[in-house]
Specification:
CATH topology of the domain at 270-417: Rossmann fold
Structural class: alpha+beta
Strand content: 5-15%
Radius of gyration: 28 Å
Helix content: 55-70%
Number of helices: 33
Length: 734
């Protein structure tokens, strides 16, 4: 049936797909997709039938190849509309019916709209798409290089425009993009080093030179280009020659006063904080390492860890660019290599602290140092043991005040401690949130117990109520208790937290998940996610919001942006990299998705989600052996957790192992009688076996049982256009 009244878009940058104007992906056989890609890349010029035949049917006799092309065009007209193509020979897409991202990309470049063009370029041309035809693959490689060069040239031009206008920080942003695209490029590396130096960050330029040198040595077995080495040498000497090459040189670490210059006077005057700001130098990005407890008992160490998390949370609320706890947790030794820590976490200052108990008081001694080890700032604050809940917020407020200056005053209210009358309640809260953030089945159970004990000790402690609401919503993911029970208990806890303190980001995050999972109230859920991020821009909020955008809203590109923000805040977190891998996979940026999944697994080989997303990426690319290997790893690790069972059934079906796929479906059928998400896994397996009616019936059952069907996932493409599937989406408010 003709669909000429509807518009379509061929997406070729970062993958290959056809998307309707409604936003829904349109399922296509691979050779039809390949033909659309050929015509999209040929733009207004079009492509002759002989050229198409030579690329898609190089081994077929001429008549058979032309007949095959005729059939492809026939089926495409049936799906996209009779007017989808213009001309007869050459052929081209009718832009009134079928547009393409590459055409929009080239048109934006022609108009000089470089920023718009760069935004359109989502990744390499036909990334992850293959036909196993040498002629076609050679054409793809040539086109991929052509579009990549156009993209790089646009970024380089924008960087040059910013440099000419004196906007060196923006130039740094563009050069970083170019270096990310080609880390081995000497020209891009030199451009970034010059821009960083001109922006006043010569130390960052030197750090990047070292990273580039190590990468060139590892990948190419050689040395960087001579200009890169020469510029780095000038910076190392103190910048006498760097000003003319890269702009004004900022004060380097070599020029920073050492600790001997400090005039630090400590006072103990009740609970009044005392600090001496040693330098006027400001910190752009801070890593606060885990506080030391000053004791060997495990309880003291766990409280110190909790206070570290609270300080990082308070600093983020104040607007400080601070690394998340998961990425600093490994650095428990204060005498570690600061330079290496700073390079790994990409920070220009490192905070350390020590808790000391003395005659019923607890003192927190803080220090901020440069990567070279010079002291930049010191601070000491003491409170009575019963007032320990004030320690993290007061210390964070002092540190934020130094970093941000007067700009932090407007956010003082957001840094202030949440009132608590019981030290036991605060300690149980810290330990409960520690277990919640570790997020395993056993730790979530302990978290719920500890947070409930905190509420028993102090029923007006807002953070404990917020933490309980968050832990209950997270517990659903680990099948610790039925979803209905989690919703019933979480709702009053979240409401109580927000009535006591409406500025608690974790309470808004928990409410967002409640609205999302229980109510399918997408508008209000998104508003709560945005509120949580505004109050505290941490990795957890960004990563969870990205999950909502991609899986629940189908806005994969926005989800990628949230995932990237989370990784910036948590550069060493396996969970953050794993979440970004999912978002990239949803956006069909499959090569990047695989890279992020492998980074996540390198950081934590036991990360189940890492194996899961890698299986999905390999399956999407048709790499069935690798997909099955990863799928079996996460199924074995996750036992019968249904969320970790969705991929294997499709792999078995698509590799022709029907009896194994049927046996797997039978296993899922047993799980589905007691676990809603197993309905989704079973529906996917049935669909892959060609039993579409059975799959749709299961999805309809899932919606009736209030199980979200994740309808925007690409594996539903074979049934996406079915009216019953569209009805399932409408039933979920989509």
């Amino acid at each position: 049936m003709s669909q000429g009244s509807q518009g379509f878009r061929v997406q070729t940058l970062g993958g290959l797909a056809v998307v309707a104007t409604t936003g829904a992906a349109v399922g296509q056989q691979r050779r039809r997709l390949a033909l659309l890609a050929l015509l999209a890349a040929s733009s207004e010029r079009g492509m002759t039938r002989d050229r198409i035949v030579s690329l898609l049917s190089p081994e077929s006799p001429t008549d058979a190849a032309r007949h095959s092309l005729h059939q492809l065009l026939y089926y495409l007209r049936q799906q996209l509309g009779d007017e989808a193509f213009l001309g007869t020979d050459p052929l081209r897409l009718n832009p009134a019916v079928v547009t393409s991202d590459v055409s929009q990309f080239e048109q934006a470049l022609d108009r000089g709209e470089l920023t718009s063009a760069i935004a359109i370029y989502r990744g390499p041309f036909l990334d992850g798409f293959h036909l196993n035809l040498n002629t076609f693959e050679e054409w793809v490689a040539s086109e991929r290089q052509r579009f990549a060069m156009m993209h790089s040239d646009a970024i380089r031009a924008l960087a040059g425009e910013c440099e000419a206008a004196g906007d060196h920080p923006k130039a740094v942003t563009w050069w970083r993009q170019l270096v990310t695209l080609d880390p081995l490029s000497g020209g891009a590396t030199l451009g970034l080093m010059r821009a960083l130096t001109a922006a006043g960050d010569a130390s960052a330029a030197l750090r990047h030179a070292r990273v580039h040198s190590a990468l060139v040595q590892t990948e190419l077995g050689g040395r960087p280009e001579a200009e890169v080495e020469a510029f780095a040498a000038r910076l190392q000497l103190g910048g006498r020659d760097a000003r003319s090459a890269g702009g004004a040189l900022a004060t380097s670490d070599a020029a920073t006063p050492s600790a001997d210059w400090l005039q630090h006077t400590r006072r103990r005057n009740g609970e009044t904080p005392q600090a001496d700001v040693a330098l006027t130098r400001r910190v752009n990005r801070l890593a606060l390492l885990p506080l030391r407890s000053g004791g060997t008992e495990s309880g003291a160490r766990l409280v110190a860890e909790g206070l570290t998390r609270e300080m990082i949370s308070s600093l983020a609320r104040a607007g400080v660019s601070v690394i998340g706890y998961r990425s600093v947790a490994a650095y428990t030794t204060p005498n570690g290599p600061l330079r290496e820590i700073a390079r790994t976490l990409d920070v220009d200052a490192i905070g350390t602290g020590r808790l000391v108990r003395d005659d019923g008081r607890i003192e927190l001694q803080l220090k901020v140092a440069s990567p070279r080890g010079e002291t930049l700032w010191v601070h000491s604050i003491g409170v009575e043991a019963g007032a320990v809940s004030r320690l993290a917020s007061d210390a964070a407020q002092a540190l934020a005040g130094w970093i941000l200056g007067s700009s932090t005053q407007s956010r003082t209210r957001q840094i202030a401690a949440t009132p608590v009358t019981s030290p036991e309640a605060y300690t149980n809260y810290l330990l409960g949130m520690r277990e919640a953030y570790r997020a395993t089945a056993s730790t979530m159970k302990r978290s719920l117990d500890l947070l409930e004990e905190a509420i028993v000790s102090d029923g007006s402690f807002a953070l404990a109520h917020a933490g309980l609401g968050f832990a209950l919503m997270t517990a659903i993911d680990y099948a610790i208790l039925p979803a209905d029970e989690a919703f019933r208990r979480a709702d009053p806890a979240i409401a109580r937290a927000l009535s006591l303190d409406p500025n608690l980001a974790v309470a808004h995050l928990a409410k967002a998940r409640l609205l999302q999972l229980r109510d399918w109230n997408w508008t209000d859920a998104e508003a709560e996610y945005r509120t949580a991020i505004d109050l505290e821009p941490n990795a957890l909020s960004y990563a969870t919001y990205g999950w909502f955008l991609e899986w629940y809203m189908g806005r994969a590109e926005e989800g990628v942006a949230m995932g990237e923000r989370a990784v910036q805040i948590e550069p060493s977190s396996a969970a953050a990299h794993g979440a970004l891998a999912w978002r990239l996979r949803g956006a069909d940026q499959l090569a990047r998705a695989a890279d992020e999944a492998r980074i996540a697994l390198a950081l934590d080989p036991n990360l189940i989600d890492g194996h899961w997303v890698l299986a999905e990426v390999c399956l999407r690319c048709g790499q069935f052996a690798e997909a099955e290997q990863s799928a079996r790893r996460y199924v074995d690790a996750g036992g019968d957790v249904p969320a970790n069972s969705t991929t294997l059934g499709e792999i078995l079906a698509r590799t022709g192992r029907t009896s194994e796929a049927n046996a797997y479906a039978a296993r899922l059928s047993l799980l589905a009688t007691r676990d809603g998400p197993s309905l989704i896994a079973l529906a996917r397996t049935e669909m892959s076996l060609g039993r579409h009616d059975r799959a749709l019936t299961l999805l309809e059952q899932a919606v009736r049982e209030h199980v979200f069907t994740i309808p925007f996932q690409p594996y539903w493409d074979p049934i996406r256009s079915d009216p019953r599937f569209q009805a399932v989406m409408r039933a979920q408010g989509l």
